[in-house]
């Protein structure tokens, strides 16, 4: 078989790894504010690091890591690297109201110029850009 014609056959994104600066603050944010479910929490003594596996609607999506003194990285939506992590919602206003009620600031609602769908940005405790995208 010609190797040029072979495909990776990717099925889906398995998970996204996030390194946080304050484990307890980020754990609370992702579980209590965003409502992600804890699958497993492990302290890795040899690395002085926590690893928290999180799910959304039963689907494993995020590995939250803590490491001693992780370096900062630029995280504005237009910085090089991961631009943002987007969550699909049914009602953007309700989701924004829920975040605002929990003292999470959101940007004004924008319109996707290609799909006409509405979205808004907010950040996690370390400034990682997160998006709510209305379907």
Question: What features would you describe in this structure?
Answer:
With 135 residues, this protein is of the alpha/beta class. It has 2 domains: 12-68, 2,3-Dihydroxybiphenyl 1,2-Dioxygenase, domain 1 (Roll); 77-135, Roll (2,3-Dihydroxybiphenyl 1,2-Dioxygenase, domain 1), CATH 3.10.180.10. It is built from 2 helices and 8 strands, in the order βαββββαβββ. It has helices at residues 23-33, 92-101; strands spanning 16-20, 37-44, 49-56, 59-66, 85-89, 110-111, 118-123, 129-134. The strands form 2 sheets. Strands 1-4-3-2 form a 4-stranded mixed beta sheet, covered by helices on one side. Strands 5-8-7-6 form a 4-stranded mixed beta sheet, covered by helices on one side. A hairpin with a 4-residue loop joins strand 2 (37-44) and strand 3.
The CATH class of the largest domain is identified as Alpha Beta
What is the string of SSEs from the N terminus onward?
EHEEEEHEEE
In CATH terms, what is the fold-level topology of the largest domain? 2,3-Dihydroxybiphenyl 1,2-Dioxygenase, domain 1
Termini separation: 41 Å
Class by alpha and beta content: alpha/beta
């Amino acid at each position: 078989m010609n190797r040029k014609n072979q495909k990776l056959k990717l099925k889906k994104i398995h998970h996204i790894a996030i390194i946080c600066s304050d484990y307890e603050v980020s754990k609370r944010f992702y579980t209590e504010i965003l409502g992600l479910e804890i699958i497993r929490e492990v302290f890795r003594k040899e690395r002085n690091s926590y690893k928290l596996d999180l799910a959304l609607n039963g689907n494993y999506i995020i590995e939250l890591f803590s490491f001693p003194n992780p370096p900062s990285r630029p995280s504005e939506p237009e910085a090089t690297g991961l631009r943002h992590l987007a969550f699909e919602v049914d009602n953007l206003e309700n989701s924004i109201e829920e975040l605002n009620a929990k003292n999470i600031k959101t940007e004004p609602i924008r319109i996707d110029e290609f799909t006409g769908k509405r979205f808004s940005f907010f950040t996690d405790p370390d400034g990682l850009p997160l998006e709510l995208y209305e379907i």
